[in-house]
Fold each of these.
Amino acid sequence: MTDLAPVTLPVATPRQARRILGQALRPHRRAASLALMVLLGTVGAGLFIPPALGTLVDIVYTGGRRAELTGPLVTLAVATLVQGVLSSGGWLLIVQVGEKALAGLRETVLGHALSLPQAEIERGGTGDLVSRVSNDVDKVSEALRRGFPQFLWSACAAVLTVGGLAALDWRLALAGLVSLPFYAWAARGYLIVSPPLFAAERRAEGERSQQLVETLGGFRTIQALLLGPRHLRRTDVRSEAARRASIKAIDTTAWFFSRIHLGELTGTGTVLVLGAWLVGAGDATVGEATAAALYFIRLYDPIGLLVNLLDEVQSATASLSRLVGILQVEATARPGGPEPRDTTLTLRGVRFGYADGPDVLRDVDLVIRPGEHVALVGASGAGKTTLAALVAGIHEPRAGSIELGGTPLAGMSREDLARHITLISQEVHVFAGTLAEDLRLADADATEPRIREALSLVGASPWVGLLPDGLDTRVGTGGFTLTPVQAQQIALARMVLRNPAVAVLDEATAEAGSAGARELEASMARVLAGRTALLVAHRLTTAAAADRVVIMRDGRIVEQGPPSELATRGGPYSELWHAWQTNR
Ligand SMILES: Nc1ncnc2c1ncn2[C@@H]1O[C@H](COP(=O)(O)OP(=O)(O)OP(=O)(O)O)[C@@H](O)[C@H]1O
């Protein structure tokens, strides 16, 4: 893998994508058939217009009576009215079907993405995933809302109009067909040339998003290591690739339209010349020749639209394939093993690395006894957060095993895992909604007294009491902004409500300030009482309160023992301890 070729999620073949779309449309077959009938009615009504106009031309041309005009004029009025009424109803029905199918598809894809282990998503790239569920969903959505109904209408209109022309005079219909080779030429070229170009455009956009997410996500590290110019260069390269891919795709569209206009010119010219000749030979009336030309001109819109839509359908198919590709990332099957005997955590010979990267954990052996609190201490990058994520079952080791009460985590179902072990990471997320809703994410049936009890245990009652609407106050995006300490307390309260036997905590005291950190330490101590706990300690006071401290360096455990013993042993912990005491 080169530096500039990130791993992305899989892409489905157009056939697989169409199959999934078909499945999403299946529950709405009846509404779709009704909408199709209404559309056919609309086009059918429009077919009466050219002959009626032709008849009017004949009446005027031959100096007919004024009363003769009534019939064609009534036909014109009724056909226009029916066309108008049916078309608005038909569009509405089709748009509804499209929206419902899209909602189903979006739920399927998002549901699958959420059920995937974090490692699978990280391997493919979160930027790529974001681009798929935003850009690609928009493209498919636009196609289903507008493109798909217009495509149906154009196809019906084109076929029926050619039928109307043939019913008028088969020779004039044949004359119109002279344009077909131009349309076929354009469509064939477009269908063969454009799919890879549109797929490349989507891929380039995905890679650009991926690069932006990487750059913004690693903002601090990039600044600290002065990697800004390098990341700017990479972003430039990917943006340039996306720009080139877009221009190539647009070029084929221009080529396509030039062929279509050639078809229109040839078809109309031939119909007019043959019409004039037939009139001259006395084989057709001026009105019939006019109607034939009008029929052919009525083909411009549907064919132009079909052309336009081929572009949109191609582009939407490429997006749909990327969306459906998410369904192809298989969640590693987790059959559900036996209930753990107890809450002993046992790590044996654990080795781990991210995606295809080097090992960041090596030969980790660790046993945490039921009820024991173990603190992980070490320099930044030593592997503490990674080890915590493995113990919470988020990642699986490359080698070695992690067991809870004798049951390997890898063999436990996600539900069992979530029931036994809860992880609180440094970046706590407060979901948009009321505070009570946010807390009930941990236990949907939690009663208000239980919620209040949990808030009291984590020390959040005083500030929650001051919120304008108490538990019904809206928090998260667009709502009341919680401080980092408050957000951590909410995460701890969620843990209390979920009540797991094992707690894994990545201490987030860095942003809390020293008063906030002390407050959080006290909240944590109350929540962890009685549970088996592994905590990543960023402050040595947290480590000093644990039963055992484990020191990590370069992905290995280099020292462990009770903090009071380690402080005087003269090893890495006592060095850290003394340095910290001196700097206080
Ligand atoms: N998502 C990731 N993808 C690739 N490498 C990663 C990822 N997360 C961490 N690493 C790498 O794994 C190693 C261990 O990182 P980890 O975050 O576990 O260390 P840490 O001891 O928790 O550091 P800190 O105290 O800064 O959080 C580091 O070299 C880091 O760059």
Note: The chain has 21 helices and twelve strands.
Amino acid sequence: MIEFSHLVKRHGSRAVVNDISFTAQPGRVTGFLGPNGAGKSSTLRILLSLDRASSGSALVNGVTYRSIRNPLLTVGSMLDGPGANRGRTAKAHLTWVAQSNGIPLSRISEVLAMTGLSGAARTRISGFSLGMGQRLGIAAALLGDPEILVLDEPTNGLDPDGIRWIRRFLRSLAADGKTVLVSSHLMGEMEETADDFIVIAQGSIVAQGTGDAVRGAHRTLEDAFFALTEGQASYRSGDLTGGEHA
Ligand SMILES: Nc1ncnc2c1ncn2[C@@H]1O[C@H](COP(=O)(O)OP(=O)(O)OP(=O)(O)O)[C@@H](O)[C@H]1O
């Protein structure tokens, strides 16, 4: 189980994560949704001990990620795509991850098969499509057969086939009892994937619960999402397009 409790992250005087509390449960896909700049990545980075909270906590099975001895055996994650050296083959990348985390090399062919990449094992990552790269990132996350999976925007830039594959795959992992926490800025992509929804805007939760609870009186979850988050995208200075904080 993943548990966020009153999590706050400040940059200077600005809270980019502002009192976030929710849990992601085993056997369920939890969709973590919000427009650009809402604070999704900041929250997940703290969960994975890549950044420190200003206050509050983000725990995995009751402890911080950094305190877990061999974290890949408990939590698999993908932030910012596969994070692989593009000159390596898929197999070489997975071998490197497995060896540096004490994972048996026999697991590599298993995760390649699970993600449909067996035929691309010896292909250099520079020759991968975006969708293959996302599959490789998920394969690496699954190497340690973790009970918890954390994925930041895994469908970003994928075509409908790739999105459908990820949707089915995440559902099958949850059906196996795993805790799946997945972020997206598109409710349409998560509508049929997630069991529970956490919607954030400008660092704060604006709705949470099952699809029915978040949909409320709106016709679709996507309508609810836009009503809850409209005009609340926030962009770093230097980005081309802007919301009200550009
Ligand atoms: N190191 C930093 N210093 C200052 N502000 C930051 C820093 N990192 C992130 N932010 C700000 O925090 C806010 C939340 O960013 P974050 O990347 O968590 O959002 P997000 O929901 O993941 O958005 P996206 O979908 O665009 O990735 C943004 O306004 C961003 O500009």
Note: Residues 1-74+148-246 form a domain with the Rossmann fold fold (CATH 3.40.50.300).
